[in-house]
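Below: protein 1.
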Amino acid sequence: MTPRERWMATFNGAERDRLATDYWRTSEFHTALVAEVGCDGDELWRKLGIDVPYSAGPRRLSSGHPLDPEADLWGIRHTSIEYGAGAYSEATYHPLAGITTLREVEQYPWPDPDDFDYSPVAAAVEKNAGHRVFRAGHYEPFLRYCSLRGMEQGYMDLIENQDLAHAILDRIFQFHYEQNRRIFLTAGDGAVDLFYLAEDLGGQSGPLFSLETYRRFLLAHQKKMAQLVKSHGARVFYHTDGAARIFLPDLIEQVGIDILNPLQWRCPGMELPELVRDFGAHVVFHGGIDNQHTLAFGTPDEVREQVRWCGAIMAEHRARWICAPCHNIQSISPVANVLAMYDEASKVPLPQAI
């Protein structure tokens, strides 16, 4: 089977030759993996049996921001922050941190979907030729909101500055809705398989929002974006870290997500047996192989054992699963552990077709 055929068979609960897989990593780990295996790109994916999606997006026609040529299109400045074994790009200048009025929101130079060339999306569809699942478009509004306002202020706004929060989130939605609409039109109906809808609703020990707050500020826009996605024949790939169980009924029943990532089952309420039992009939699970402990600090045998454990739980409930790390593989993770994950995934017995 091709990688796309394997993913599509998973979506449909149909027979397939092996588990579908995916790959999330930091650039530092990927460099180590390439050095160890001795190849990259399509050759690497074939050699390790990784069904990584093909993705593309529009190309921006200008750079900088009208108020700050050193910033991104939102006016946010980023800095590379070293953490010892690598670096992350973090928002370090928040252009809307000091605003207090709705008028200031209206007057701010917001990004314009016209400032993009969408032809790279069509070119990528043609190049991929249906070999891999094709992913395009994204929407993660509160992460953007916090970059615009600052993390602490962003959460405070949800209590103290609700009108301001709604106005800024509306602007973020308007831009992404129109940009994503053009992406789908450029690609053609049915060409985009996956759309990345995200918001980190859970932390390591509990939810980051109350359910009421999520419903007040995020739910309606997520529903509208998902409706756009489905109107063009794509599936909603939903990413939320952490302890996010309280949000899953809304995400499944209201938003209509198709795929849930990344399954951080060590977090309270996300225990894998119960998660699969309660929601396995409604979504495809993606992820599940722990990269905070097992991939980073375990042995290859422990990684293999975890892959088998996840596979057994999925099979018990005839759940649909794409085997992948539960987030970006970090630079400290031994390459041998990751090789063991993909090798063992190729051996996991599959449940009968649904």
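Below: protein 2.
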Amino acid sequence: MKKILILLMCIIQISLTTICTAQEDKTEIVETAEMYLIEKNDGTQISGQLTSRDMREIIIQTKEMGLIVIPMHVIKKIRPLKEQELNEYGEFIPAEVFSTRYTFTTNGLPIEKGESYVLVNLYGPEVHIGVAKNLSIGVMTTWLAAPAALSAKYSFPVGEKAHLGVGTLIGTGSWLSNNLVMALPYATLTHGDRRTNFSISAGYGLVWDKTQYLPDA
């Protein structure tokens, strides 16, 4: 009987040891100086060095807030940062949506779906919104609400670091001159990214009076 009890105790002890081993924390200790960008489901971006990760959470070392624990279920994307995305102090430089344009003109880089921006210029305000992949629309006017114009731009890649944007501005004299119609179809070739780029643009402007039906170049 004693032998049977001892055997049962050994079996139970072995079983418990197996269960405990199976339930060990599978945390991966990450030893790297590489910078990562973590994008959360709400759009928040956090950059830093990964300290550890497992199936439940990621721990990241940031320069601003120290160690941050982020649950995996709130993370949308994790990716390593490229050298050109960091400044001289090793800090992440976000790619601003304003980089899709210059002071007075747009460029060939796309406004991503869901992105938007508002500009307030000396002559008036304008709003631009990404409504679909590579497609954006906008409204431009003066502080007098005349003239007023709608804009549309479609951008697509034509190389590793090149984008071509084709679009148009269509406007009216509004309440100052309701018969005045304006159009400016254009194309812009941009080389670079949202941090550094240069562009070559070409377009053709038309202005005409609706009552005459004869556009003047």
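Residues 63 and 89 are 10 Å apart (CA to CA).
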